[in-house]
Amino acid sequence: MTNAKGMDGPTLAFWALLLGLTGLRIWILRLDLIDLYFDEAQYWAWSRSFELGYFSKPPLVAWVIAATTAVFGNEEWAVRLGAPLAHAIAGLAIFGLARAMYGAWAGFWAGLCWLLIPGVSLSANIISTDALMLPLWALALYALWRLTLTRAWVWALALGAAVGLGVEAKYAMLYFPLCAVLAAYWLKPVRSGLAGGRGIVAGLVALALIAPNLYWNVRNGFVTAQHTAANANFDAPELFRFNKLIEFLVEQAEIIGPLLFIALVVMLWRAATKASSLREEDKFLLAFILPPLLFVSVIAFISRANANWAVAAYPAAIVWLVGHLAASVQGRRFLAAAIALNVALFAAAVVLVMRDPALANRFDGIREARGWEETARQVAQRAAAGDFTAVLVDDRTAFYELGYYWRDLRRTTKLPPVRMWLRHAAAHSSPELTDPMRPEEGERVLIVHMTPGCVPLVADDFSDGIRSVVRLIIPLGGDVNRELEISVGGNFSPVPRDSAYEERLKARGC
Q1: Computed over its alpha carbons, how large is the radius of gyration of the chain?
Q2: Which of 122, 165, 214, 301 has the largest CB neighbor count within 10 A?
């Protein structure tokens, strides 16, 4: 085990690249190339009030946005500012871990690899729970390794703090204690590091930081935990599909880059076939690679899994890959080629997307985020022109995008409150819980329809019915438009959400 210290050449080189790349990413954010995604607009809305938890996510993402926007204002770049800063912290932690395990130049290569894998290059431009969890995961890894080496109490405290804050970022951080148990099972030094009450103190610190959100969940019927579990989609009509597993694995190659993914597969195969040759560093890192990667792969096979669900495996994976590859000239050449390919692929994708709107709109995420500022402006014109008591939307995307892009318009224009149409008897989303359409606000309502199949059902909730006003068409580039129907409803009086109503919902695909 090596533990080189000091501001030597590799350290100075990494700091220079880290600061330069982070500065570049912040500059790119300030160009405001794309409107806020729905999730980002939702997190911004949450950040307007300090809470210990929110409907579908733990609270750290909202707290970070509250901090960055308090300092820099509410423009898109300020909402997203936490993302590049968080990945810079992750890069530092990965640099430190690889340096402690394999030497200074391995630290340099590992930190650089992390910062330039496609998943991080994309994530650095989007504020998300993953962007905030990953640096805390990497810091927890580093703290546990330092605790293993030194048995110093400060590292037990740091470990607990990183795990506790990580859970406040995303519940996937709960993989970490399970991975740590596996590492302790495989390695006596890890067991010794956690012995003597150090592991208990780390756990208590983590629990103290998790406790406020746990309390919030208890007070709110564990709504966040239920939403997280529902994402697994185990009640899907078709289960156990190999094509979903293959699709998930291809997406993992897209996250870390094709060459690094191939290298990871080869090294995992070698580790499985030559387990007796594994060193302590290998076993430690594998304990934090295999559980999240295998568990999410099983979910992908059973039902489905989003590409980002296994990202917790990659801080350790990058350190493990680089630790072995950086030890030889041939390995360093491979790393240079992998990094160059990742940069080239990401840069080419960005250039193509920016120059060809039709191509960009083939990607759901880009298409769904485009044109919301203009959409909100045109809806606001209609909302301000009539004496409306509320604006009703049938989709939470519209709810949060209107809320964000009306933030400045409300200072100069009188706009009614935005309310969410309640599809079912119980709330299935955050705005349905906090801002459902209320009968007392339903005298004359401007309705924004994003789901055509829901229009007759929305109409049934108005005793005076609805009348169509206009079809709103927002060009998104190329030949793609966002099409909304704007109507007016009178006297909101929702029909009972009984079993017959639920059958109608299902029949209309609403």
Answers
A1: 25
A2: 165
